[in-house]
Amino acid sequence: MLKKVTVNTLQKMKDNGEKFSMLTAYDYPTAKYLDEAGIDVLLVGDSLAMVILGYDNTGKIGIEEMSVFTKAVVRGANRAFIVADMPFGSYHSGIDNAMANICHLAKCGANAVKIEGGNDYIYSIVERSVGLGVPVMGHLGFTPQFLNTIGGYNIQGKTVEATLEILKQAKHLEEAGAFAVVLEMVPEESAAYITQNLKIPTVSCGAGRFCDAQVIVSDDMLGKFSEFKPKFVRKYADLKSVILNSAKQYDFDVKNGNFPSEDEIYKLNDSERMQLLSYQN
Ligand code: KIV
Questions:
Q1: Residue boundaries of the structural domains of the chain
Q2: Adjacent-strand bridge partners of 81
C-alpha cells in the first residue's frame, strides 16, 4: 500500500519545489479512482452543493450533508489526504460550535477541514482547531461563502494594495497554524508574490501557475457539471456526453427489445423449464 499523504508530505513538497495535486471528490468510486490516479489531496468541497445536489449556491449545504459525502470519500481513498469543507453556517456562531462541527467532520474521517475567510474570528478558530489536533486549510481571494458581501464572482487581489491585504491574511492563517491556503480567482502575479512570501503551501484555484499546488472541481474537469465552466478550468473529459449517449442507447435498446440479451439473463435448468412449460400447457 502506498504511504498516506500527510501535512508533512505537503510541506516537504513545497520545500523541495515539488507541486502537489488536489481535486474535489464527493463519492466513493470517484475518490477511489482519483486516489488510484495519484491525486495527493481530495477536497470534499462545498461545491458539492451545486454540482451534486443542484442547489444554486454553495451556502445551502449543511454539516449533516457534508458528513455523508465525507464518509463516502474516506471509504474510497487510501493514500490521498482528505480535506472536508466547513459549510456556511457551521462555524459562524462561536468557536465552541465551530469546534463541535470540526470534530464532527474529523470523526467522519476527514484528515483536515477547510475554512473560508481571513479575519480575527477565523484565525482564532484555526488556532483552536490545530491546537486540538485537526489541521486547517485556509481559503482566501474569492471566497464563495462571502458571495453576497463580495457582490459577485469577482477576481480578488487585482491591485498591489489588495494583494498585500491577501498576503496579510495568509500570514495570519499561517501564524494561527494553517497548513496550506487556497487562493481563488487571484491574478497570477499576485498569487506568485503571496506564495513566495509564505512558508506554507498555496493552492491555486484560478490563481495561475506559480502556486505550490492546483485544485479544480472534478465535475468541471470531467465535464459532468455543464451549467457553466469557469475560465480557469480545463475540461479533460466530457462525461455529460458519455452519460447522455449511454442513456439514449439504453432507452433505444429497451424499447426495441435489444436489452437484455441472451448473455444478460438467468435461465431455469432444463427440467424446471420443462415442468414450467407443462404448467402452461
Ligand atoms: O468547494 C470547493 O470545491 C472549493 C474549491 C474549488 C477550492 O472550495
A1: 7-237, 242-280
A2: 41
Mutate to test the pocket of ligand 1, among 22, 42, 58, 61 (most ligand atoms within 8 A of CB): 58
What is the percent of the chain with per-residue pLDDT over 90, rounded to a whole number?
97
Q: Which atom of ligand 1 is nearest to the CA of 182?
A: 7
Ligand 1 geometric centre to CA of 217 (Å): 7
Concerning whether 184 is annotated as a catalytic residue, the answer is yes
Per-residue pLDDT tens digits for 176-208: 999 999 999 999 999 999 999 999 999 999 999
Catalytic member of 116, 127, 174, 184:
184
CA 153 to centroid of ligand 1, rounded, Å:
14
CA separation for the pair 71, 76 (Å, rounded): 9
Question: Looking at residue 280, what is its pLDDT?
Answer: 67
pLDDT at 127: 98
CA distances from 273 to 262, 269, 278 (A): 16, 6, 9
- 205 Cα nearest atom in ligand 1: 7
Q: What is the CATH number of domain 7-237?
A: 3.20.20.60
Q: What is the pLDDT of residues 76-93, one digit of tens each?
A: 999 999 999 999 999 999
